[in-house]
Amino acid sequence: MLDVGRPPFTHIGASDRARHTPRLADFRTDDKTRLMSMVVIRGAVRVFDIALIFILGFAVAAFYVDEPTIAGNTYYMAAIVMTAVVTVAAFDMLGLYSQACFTSFIRQAPRLLLAWTAAFALLLAAVFFFKVGHEFSRVWFATWYAVGAAVLLIDRLVVASFVRRWTRQGRIYRRAAIYGSGTISEKLLHELEDDVDADIRITGIFDDRGDDRVARIVAGYPHLGGLKELEAFARSSRLDMVIVALPITAEQRVNEVTRALAVLPAEVKLPARSTELRFTADTYSRVGNVAMIDLLEKPIADWGSVAKWMFDKIVGGLALLALAPLMLVVAAAIKLDSRGPVLFRQKRYGYNNQLVEVFKFRSMYTDRCDVNAAKLVTKDDPRVTRVGRFIRKTSIDELPQLFNVILGNLSLVGPRPHALEAKAAGSLYDKVVDGYFARHKVKPGITGWAQINGWRGETDTPEKILKRVEHDIYYIENWSLLLDVYILLKTPFALLKSENAY
Description:
502 residues, alpha/beta, Rossmann fold, two-stranded antiparallel sheet, 17 helices, 14 strands
């Protein structure tokens, strides 16, 4: 079974293969821990290192040097900034921002002291050649060097402890599945096992060929089923990457598999060895040292996900404070208009097709509420209250979803979450739109690209849901923080065009 405490690969030893009969249930896990991007961790540690070195240099100078203000001293400020930048560059050259170094303090310490010493040697050399030694305090040099070395070592000891803990929790390694069980797959597995820098855990092998053509154990890893089982696996646990280990000459099959996997919030890659063609180095991405061709990218990853999270929390929190008086007035109006609770809770599809509970102001009579939205609201619908007609028309009923943004179930901007039994022309949405669930590759939002382009409200024809999904996919593939800001600014104007909202 997959165990986050084990090495990166869930490998079944030769002695176990004869008696082991793998089942999907054996390897499925309810682990919902989110991946911590190494890109973000490396970037954050770099920024922290620069800030720490700068603060230490400035603090020692401010404490010891007899100057009215160190901030106004060009020599000291230039020396501090230069030393911080050069030190971090030296850390980078010596591999101190690699995952392997992060996990081992013993491996980091000598390199760190070497880089810190080299940076100071370069600073002293610059001071000597520019003949500005009289502008600096020698005690400041010595104190900053000694204190900096000690603090940087303590800093890396803390970083190593955190990274080791995140590794044990399975938050550092990307979890990957391989589709295809042929020669390409076996060679790929051996390459990844031999590569100590590979940052993935293989959870299993998937292949749609029959049992007579696929062994239960492939190169030491369990065969867990076909594409349907792969999708179910990805829905029930975190899956960050799928490697399609098929020859590129099987173009039709590769295309079919890629289209099927496009609904998952995971990277999809093809091993470079699957083709004899060789491209420029920029064409490939790498898993450890293994070259891959990107078929599908994971949307809103690394720093993008950090920026979007911060944007949601800050802007969502401010919006909740600003709109609180209006929400209180609406709550009072709902209470006075009809019996029942102010808020209406509804299960909807969220990120990775998981169910989330969405808050709305109640707009229907309590005994006529349709939790699953089996029947969409139409014009002059008798189930809607007097206050409900107004708040639905203006989308004020959506304001409590700001609580969902703060709780983390929704984003401010994204594909709108649909109810479980929402239909277009009598058919469930996923039956009308091929690849419908690809819109669940990111968190749903309170507003979105489809809404500001007029595709909101009733979906009484297939075209309306097709257009809505088309716009949702466009948003996912073209996301940027500026696009989110643009959509938020356009939303109030889009609400004025409410001919499709009832």
